[in-house]
Design brief:
It is a single chain. The chain is α+β, with helices and mostly antiparallel strands. Helices cover about 30% and strands about 30% of the residues. The strands form four sheets. Strands 1-2-6-7-10-13-14 form a seven-stranded antiparallel sheet, with helices on one face. It has a three-stranded antiparallel sheet with strand order 3-5-4, with helices on one face. A hairpin with a 4-residue loop joins β11 and β12. The protein is globular, with a radius of gyration of 18 Å.
Length: about 260
């Protein structure tokens, strides 16, 4: 078993457990670190040199041409905005104000106060990239873990029939809400904690989620799980049921704390 750990990446810690030949896994870990750092640089709006920061700085005044990867991401986010009834919104206000020109591959903001924040998307996207890297390298047993909040599991633990991930109650230390048994799937958990309150916004109201609540979603697609856990954290009950219909195979657990 190879264990690699990277601190302070995408707002949390990255841990990767892989089963295989040591030399291969050591080289693969270096590639995973490079990819995580590349995506962090590209999608971190607080980094003045990131492409997202460049878009935020200039798309308020004129169309900005973006690279192929970021273009695909922005189009993808538009689809998620629609499928979640607007509860997932990378602008935290109204993604419809982000105008995408497919012919020129440009983005412009229809409102000068708009900016893009990839906080509810980037970790899921990074997990999907790492999952692909692992499979291409022939690794069939692995766990990629962003601080227990965003996880992808390949195969099983070498001493069991799954990878077990426990979700703890952040307001009651030592109390475990649930243990998820993962195999060839992903898990994303969103919500308020004692360290992170007032960090999830309902884009319809513009207000921060005040409830003491966690939402965990299991879904094969890493990005889908990440998006759903964020959207379901702020959606009302009727909207939750409507959103879930677009993701029939999703396992959703909502914990009131």
């Amino acid at each position: 078993m190879f264990h690699g750990s990277l601190m302070n990446i995408m707002g949390t810690r990255l841990d990767v457990l892989m089963i295989g030949e040591e030399k291969l896994l050591s080289l693969l870990w270096e590639d995973i670190v490079s990819e995580a750092e590349r995506l962090h640089r590209m999608l971190n709006r607080f980094n003045p040199g990131s492409e997202i920061s460049h878009v935020n700085a200039h798309a308020v005044s004129h169309p900005v041409k973006v690279n192929d990867e970021l273009w695909t991401i922005l189009v993808d986010i538009k689809k998620y905005h629609q499928s979640t009834l607007g509860y997932f919104d990378a602008t935290l206000r109204d993604y419809n104000l982000v105008i995408l020109d497919e012919n020129n591959q440009t983005v412009v903001f229809a409102d000068k106060t708009i900016l893009l924040d990839m906080g509810g998307y980037a970790k899921g996207y990074a997990l999907g990239k790492m999952q692909k890297m692992l499979l291409q390298a022939g690794v069939r047993q692995a766990l990629v873990n962003f601080g227990n909040s965003s996880v992808v599991a390949l195969g099983t633990h070498p001493h069991g029939n799954c990878w077990s991930i426990g979700i703890e109650d952040p307001f009651h230390p030592g109390r475990q809400l649930k243990v998820f048994e993962l195999c060839d799937t992903s898990l994303s958990t969103s919500g308020n904690t004692t360290q992170h309150t007032n960090h999830i916004i309902d884009p319809h109201s513009g207000k921060y989620m005040a409830e003491r609540k966690l939402v965990s979603v299991i879904f094969p697609n890493c990005v889908d799980a990440e998006i759903l856990s964020t959207a379901l954290s702020v959606a009302d009950n009727q909207s939750i049921e409507a959103i879930k219909k677009s993701y029939n195979n999703a396992i959703c657990c909502i914990f009131a704390l």
